[in-house]
Each structure stands twice: as C-alpha cells, then as structure tokens.
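Lab notebook page, bench 4
Experiment: in silico fold of construct C2
Operator: M.H.
Input chain length: 170 residues
Purpose: comparison with the prior construct
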Amino acid sequence: MSSTASQPARTHVQTGPEATAWAERLRVANINPRTGLATDYLNHFNEAVMLLEMVPDMPECAEDFLTWTPLSYAEHFTASNFKARDLAIEAYEKADPNVRAQFDHLTDTMTSILTAVGSAMREVEKDTTRVRLADQATLWVKPLIAACGGIINGGAEADVDTIMATHPDR
C-alpha cells in the first residue's frame, strides 16, 4: 500500500506573507513547516512494533499484531483524531516531491515488511517461530521509523537551523 495520495502533487511555491502564514499554520498543528509532514503518522508503525515487541513475552500478542492494517498517510489521518487532519493531508500533498518520495519509499518498505511478517505469522504454528519473526521485524522496522522521523523533521540540517533559531545565543 502506498503512502502517496491519489491526487496530483501541487508544486505551488508560496512566498512572503503567504508562506509565513502557511508555515505558522503547520507549526501550530504539529506539522513540520519545512517538510509538510507530521510525525503522527509514525504512530501507525510504532503501534505495530509495540505489538511485535510484546510477542516474545506473550506469544498470544501475535494475534493482536495480526489485526494491524496498513494505512497510507492520507488514510491514517482520515481515520485519526488528529486535530488538523485535513491540514496534514493537504500539507503532505503540497510537500516537496523529492522529500515525499523518500518518505513514501521508507513507509512503503515498512508496510511491506509488516505485511510479510503478518502473512508468515498466519502460516506458522509454533510460538517460537512467531517470536523470531517478531524479533526480526522489529530489528528491520525500528531504524526505518527513525529514518522517517529524520525526513519528517528535515534531517540534520533542519535540526541545526531549528536549534539556532530557538537559541540565537549559541
């Protein structure tokens, strides 16, 4: 399942007061103004990882993981209680296509891993095999979640800019 929206990307570049107002709307809504992406989407994957991490201690939690359903960015926000969900979807659609492509590649990869692990868990009968699948999936997905967070937050360069803007005395 792809994270990309079905609508074509809008590449209108805002300038001046229009850009400032847009950035402030995003910031207030907890959407990164530089990337147009919100970390709230990562909760969708963190939920799956949390369930997988429970499997070694409670193998019956594999059944809970199997109820996890992949959702695209837009589907996640449409189904969520995120206060600015329509703004999050709009900002995603307006995001830089290169940033969005990197983000979508990682989220598509996580979705593929989690879907494949779910399929494998349905096929096996031994809890020990489910535990190994859960352990391996968390080892693969956790770094991808972190990488997505980096993309959402604009990477290291954006972090430095944010720190400097927040702490001008540094």
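Observations: The first helix runs from residue 16 to 28. The chain is about 65% helix and 0% strand.
Next step: discuss at group meeting.
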